[in-house]
Design brief:
Largest sheet: 6 strands, antiparallel
Strand order of the largest sheet: 12-11-16-15-14-13
Structural class: alpha+beta
Radius of gyration: 63 Å
Number of helices: 24
Helix content: 40-55%
Strand content: 15-25%
Number of strands: 23
Shape: elongated
Length: 876
C-alpha cells in the first residue's frame, strides 16, 4: 500500500468513526431530537456502533484486508440498521435527505471494495461519512448540547485528521529516508569492500614479487627475447606462479596472475584468457608501476569481467626486473558471498556491479536492467548516490572510483518495498489508535460541556423570549459562578437598561423623524436647484427646483450621472459637465449655461462642495444651481435704464445749454431772446418731469407712498387733464374726453391719479408718431366686486407686440430697449402707473393691436356714499 493510499484509508475510517460516535452522542444527549420512537432510536445507535467498530478495526489496521468477511458483515449490519432507522426520522427534512445520501454512499463503497478497488472505496466511504456528519450537524441545530457535540466532532475531525495526515507524511518520509540511508550505507560499504580487495591484492603482489626474486634470471631472459624463445625460462616462472597461487595466495576469489618484464614484455601468465592477459599487460596499473617503481592497486574492468588488481615492482637491489600482478575476481560468486549472511538473506538483498552500458556481476533478486543501468549512469555521471523505486523494490546505486578518483562503475543494492510498507503500517496503526483515543476523550468532554451549557442557555432563551414579546420586566433566574452566571447577570442588567432606554429611544426617534421631515421639506422647497451625488458621481438627491430647471423628473434622474440629465457649458462654450461627475475635493463656483431636456440654455450660477463622512472620507458632493435669468434681465434693464436716463437728461440739456450760451454771448432782438427763453423753459420743464418721475418712482418702490384720498368727480379729473395738455399737444394730435352719464364720485388721491393720467397720455402721444386722436374717458364698471371707476386712455398709434405686452408694466421695461429705439423715455411710466393703481387697491390692464393702437384702463374705487351724477354729459 502506498503512502497516499494509507492516508486516504486513515482519513475515510477516522471520519466514519467520528460521525458514528457523534450520532451516538447526539442520540444520548437529546433522545427526542432525531427519533420519537424507541425502536428507531435503538436501531440507529446499534447501526452507528457497528460502523464505529468496523472503522476502528480497519483504520487501526487490526484488520488489514478491507474485504475481510467479519469486517464486511459488521459494516453491512451498521448500514442496514442506520438505513432502517431513517424511515422513522423526526429531525429536519434536509438532514434526513443528507443522512440517506451518506448511508447510500457507504453501501456503494462496500460494493466498490468487493471489486478490488480499495482506494476508490475509501474515497467514497469518506465522502459518505462526511455527508452523514453534515446531516447530524443540520439535525442538531435545535439543541445546544447536540450542536456542541457535533461541532466538537467536526473540530476534532478537522484538527486530528490534518495533524494525523501531516504526521503520516512525515512518518512515511522518515521511514523511506531511514531505509534509503541504511541501504546507501550498505552500498557504500560494498564499494569500500571492493577497494579493500584491491589493497589486499597489492599485498599479495608484493609477496609474489619477493617470491619471484629467485627467478630473476629467468625473468630477465624471457624479457630479453620479447616473447619469442626462452620457453624453458618462461615455464619456470609460470611454475613459480602456480606454486604461489596454491600455497601463499590469500585471496579466496583469485584471478589471473601475471609477470611482466622491465621493458613491458609478457613473461608468464596463469588462469587468464588471451583477452584478459592482453588487457592486464597493458593496464594502467602495470604501466604506472613500470613508470614509478611503486606498488599500485586498482579496480578495473578487464574484458567483460571486473577485477581488483594489485601490481608490485620486482627489484633486486637497484635493478628493476619487472612487475608482479595479482587479481581478484569481482563476479557473481564474490557478490553472492557478500550477501550470504543471515541478515542479507532475511532482507532479500540484491547486489550488482553495473556501469552505464551493462551489468558485470549480480547476486540475489535484481530490479529491472533499465533501472540498474539508469541509476548507475547517474551515479557515475554525478559522482553521488542515486535511489529509485522499481516496482516493489527499493534500489540504491553508489559510484566506484578508479585509481585517479574518478567514478567508472557503480554498486547497486536493492531490497523489497514491502519492508518499508510494513514499518509504515505499524506506525499508522499506532497513530490511528492514538487519534481515536483523543477523539473519544474530546467527544465525551464536549458532550458534558454542551449539556451543561445547554441547561443555562435554556433559562436565558426563555427570558429572551419574554423580552421579545414585549415583557421588559423579564429576567433570567440563573445563579452560577461561571461564565453563564456572569452572562445571566449581564443579561438582566441589559434588560433593565432596555426598559429604561425604551422611552428615550422612542422620543429620539420621533425627534429624528421630525428633523428629517423638516430637512426634506427645506430641500424640497428650496428656490435653487439642489443636486447631491455619491462618491461615484451618481445622483442621490434631486429637488423640485432641479426638476423644473432640467425638465427631468427626480425618479428618472436618481441613480444616473448628471451628464445624462443635462449639459453645462461656460460663457466661452467650454463643456464643464464632467466636473459634476468626477469627485469634488474642495468647493468651487462657476457661472455657466445649463441645457436640459427643453434644449434652451439657461444661465445659472453653480456652487459645488464635497460631502464627507464622520471619518472624513469623501462620500459625494452637493451642487446648488441657481437660475440667474431674472438677475441677468434686471442687469440688462438697469443698463438700459442708465442709458435712457442719460439720454433723457442730455436731450433737454442740449438746447438749454445752447440757447443759454447764445443769450450770454450775443446781442439779439427782443423777439429772439423771448423765443430762446421759451426753448430754455421747455427744456427745464422736461428735466423737471424726468426728475419728478424718478423721485416718484423711488418713493413708490421704497414703499413710502402715503395716499391722501378725497372724493373726486370724474368730470373734474378729466377736465383738469385736458386743460394741462391743451398747450402741450403737438399740432398733429388732439385730446378728447368722455364721461359716461351717471358715473359716480371716486375716492382717490387726485395728485397721484393726475400723475398716472399724464403718464398714460404722454405714452399715447409718444407712440402715435403720425398724429391722431387721443381719448381719455371715465365710466362706472361692475365686475362682481361692486361698482368701480374705469378710467381709459386710448390712441391710434403703433400698438404693442403681444409677446412684449406681459412685461410692459415691469420696472424699466420698454417695448424697444435698444440703443436705436424710435421712442425715448425711461421705461418707468407704466410701472409708475401700475404702482399708483395698486396703491389704490385697483387694477391696470392693457389691450393693444400692432398698427391699430392701444387702450390702457385703470379700475379705481368709488365713494359708496356718493350719489350718481345724473347731470353728467355723455361726450365733450
Amino acid at each position: 500500500m502506498t503512502t497516499e493510499a494509507a492516508q486516504l484509508q486513515f482519513a475515510a475510517e477516522f471520519t466514519l468513526f467520528l460521525a458514528a460516535v457523534a450520532a451516538i452522542a447526539v442520540t444520548a444527549l437529546k433522545p427526542d431530537l432525531l427519533f420519537r420512537q424507541a425502536a428507531a432510536r435503538t436501531s440507529f445507535v446499534v447501526g452507528a456502533g457497528a460502523l464505529a467498530v468496523a472503522a476502528f478495526l480497519h483504520g487501526s489496521l487490526l484488520v488489514d484486508d478491507g474485504t475481510d468477511p467479519v469486517l464486511v458483515l459488521t459494516r453491512a449490519v451498521g448500514i442496514v440498521a442506520v438505513g432502517a432507522s431513517l424511515l422513522r426520522w423526526h429531525g429536519a427534512s434536509d438532514g434526513r435527505l443528507l443522512a440517506l445520501t451518506g448511508v447510500v454512499a457507504l453501501a456503494v463503497a462496500e460494493a466498490i471494495a468487493a471489486g478490488d478497488s480499495a482506494s476508490l472505496a475509501d474515497g467514497v466511504r469518506g465522502a459518505g461519512a462526511l455527508v452523514f456528519a453534515v446531516a447530524l450537524a443540520v439535525a442538531s441545530r435545535r439543541a445546544i448540547a447536540a450542536r456542541v457535540a457535533t461541532s466538537a466532532a467536526a473540530v476534532v475531525l478537522l484538527v486530528i485528521t490534518s495533524v494525523a495526515i501531516a504526521l503520516s507524511v512525515v512518518i512515511a518520509d522518515n521511514v523511506e529516508d531511514e531505509v534509503a540511508r541504511r541501504y546507501e550505507a550498505r552500498a557504500e560499504t560494498e564499494a569500500n569492500v571492493f577497494a579493500d580487495t584491491s589493497t589486499s591484492a597489492v599485498g599479495d603482489a608484493t609477496l609474489l614479487a619477493r617470491t619471484l626474486l629467485s627467478r630473476s634470471a629467468e625473468i630477465a631472459a624471457v624479457d630479453a627475447v620479447d616473447g619469442n624463445g626462452a620457453d624453458a625460462e618462461r615455464q619456470s616462472v609460470a611454475d613459480a606462479l602456480v606454486v604461489f597461487r596454491d600455497t601463499l595466495l590469500r585471496e579466496p576469489f583469485a584471478g589471473p596472475l601475471v609477470v611482466v618484464g622491465a621493458t613491458g614484455n609478457p613473461v608468464a601468465t596463469i588462469d587468464a584468457t588471451e583477452i584478459v592477459r592482453f588487457e592486464l599487460l597493458g593496464s594502467d596499473a602495470v604501466q604506472q608501476v613500470i613508470a614509478t617503481r611503486q606498488p599500485v592497486d586498482d579496480v578495473s574492468i578487464v574484458g567483460d569481467q571486473t577485477f581488483s588488481i594489485g601490481a608490485a615492482p620486482i627489484t633486486s637491489g637497484a635493478d628493476f626486473l619487472g612487475v608482479a600482478v595479482v587479481t581478484a575476481r569481482l563476479d557473481g560468486e564474490f557478490l553472492a558471498d557478500r550477501i550470504a549472511d543471515a541478515a542479507s538473506a532475511e532482507q532479500e538483498v540484491g547486489l550488482a556491479l553495473v556501469d552505464r552500458q551493462r551489468s558485470y556481476a549480480a547476486a540475489g533478486e535484481q530490479p529491472s536492467l533499465a533501472t540498474s543501468l539508469g541509476l548507475a549512469a547517474d551515479a557515475v555521471l554525478f559522482d553521488e548516490t542515486q535511489t529509485a523505486l522499481d516496482g516493489d523494490r527499493f534500489v540504491v546505486s553508489v559510484p566506484v572510483l578508479d585509481e585517479d578518483g574518478a567514478p567508472f562503475l557503480a554498486v547497486t543494492v536493492s531490497v523489497p518495498q514491502a519492508r518499508i510498507d510494513a514499518t509504515r503500517q505499524d506506525l499508522f496503526r499506532i497513530l490511528f489508535v492514538v487519534a481515536l483515543g483523543a477523539a473519544l476523550v474530546a467527544m465525551i468532554l464536549a458532550g458534558y460541556a454542551g449539556n451543561r451549557i445547554g441547561a443555562g442557555l435554556g433559562v436565558l432563551t426563555a427570558a429572551t423570549g419574554e423580552l421579545q414579546k414585549g415583557r421588559l420586566a423579564a429576567r433570567a433566574k440563573l445563579d452560577t459562578p461561571d461564565e453563564l452566571g456572569v452572562l445571566a447577570t449581564t443579561f438582566n442588567q441589559m434588560a433593565g437598561s432596555i426598559q429604561t432606554m425604551t422611552d428615550d429611544l422612542r422620543s429620539a426617534a420621533d425627534e429624528e423623524a421630525a428633523l428629517r421631515a423638516r430637512l426634506e421639506g427645506v430641500v424640497a422647497g428650496m428656490g435653487e436647484a439642489l443636486v447631491a451625488v455619491d462618491e461615484r458621481g451618481r445622483i442621490t438627491d434631486f429637488n423640485a427646483a432641479a426638476e423644473e430647471l432640467t425638465g427631468v423628473p427626480a425618479r428618472d434622474a436618481i441613480g444616473k450621472k448628471i451628464d445624462a440629465v443635462c449639459t453645462v457649458t461656460t460663457e466661452d462654450d467650454t463643456d464643464i459637465t464632467e466636473r459634476f461627475v468626477r469627485p469634488v475635493l474642495e468647493s468651487w463656483n462657476a457661472q455657466a449655461d445649463l441645457v436640459g431636456t427643453a434644449g434652451e440654455p439657461v444661465p445659472v450660477a453653480v456652487s459645488a462642495g464635497p460631502l464627507r463622512g464622520t471619518a472624513g472620507v469623501l462620500s459625494g458632493a452637493v451642487f446648488v444651481i441657481r437660475d440667474v435669468r431674472r438677475e441677468r434681465e434686471v442687469e440688462r434693464m438697469k443698463t438700459e435704464f442708465i442709458a435712457n436716463v442719460s439720454h433723457e437728461l442730455r436731450t433737454p440739456l442740449t438746447p438749454v445749454k445752447g440757447y443759454s450760451d447764445i443769450l450770454a454771448n450775443r446781442e439779439l432782438p427782443t423777439e429772439r431772446v423771448q423765443e430762446f427763453a421759451r426753448e430754455i423753459l421747455n427744456g427745464a420743464s422736461q428735466l423737471e418731469r424726468v426728475t419728478d418721475q424718478l423721485v416718484q418712482f423711488a418713493t413708490l418702490a421704497a414703499g413710502r407712498l402715503q395716499l391722501q384720498t378725497e372724493s373726486v368727480r370724474p368730470r373734474d379729473l378729466l377736465d383738469g387733464v385736458v386743460d394741462r395738455w391743451n398747450g402741450r399737444l403737438p399740432g398733429t394730435h388732439s385730446l378728447t374726453r368722455r364721461v359716461a352719464r351717471g358715473t359716480p364720485v371716486a375716492v382717490v388721491d387726485r395728485r397721484y391719479v393726475d400723475v398716472a393720467l399724464d403718464e398714460l397720455i404722454d405714452n399715447a402721444i409718444k407712440y402715435s408718431p403720425e398724429g391722431g386722436r387721443v381719448r381719455v374717458s371715465a365710466t362706472a364698471y361692475e365686475n362682481g366686486n361692486g361698482p368701480r371707476l374705469l378710467l381709459s386712455v386710448d390712441d391710434r398709434g403703433v400698438g404693442i407686440d403681444p409677446e412684449q405686452r406681459h412685461a410692459i408694466f415691469d420696472d424699466f421695461a420698454q417695448a424697444d430697449g435698444s440703443a436705436t429705439r424710435r421712442f425715448g423715455g425711461l421705461g418707468l411710466g407704466l410701472a409708475l402707473v401700475n404702482r399708483i393703481v395698486r396703491a389704490h387697491g385697483g387694477e391696470l390692464t392693457c389691450t393693444s393691436s400692432p398698427g391699430k393702437g392701444t387702450t390702457v384702463q385703470m379700475l379705481l374705487p368709488l365713494d359708496p356714499a356718493a350719489a350718481f351724477d345724473v347731470t353728467s354729459e355723455g361726450v365733450t
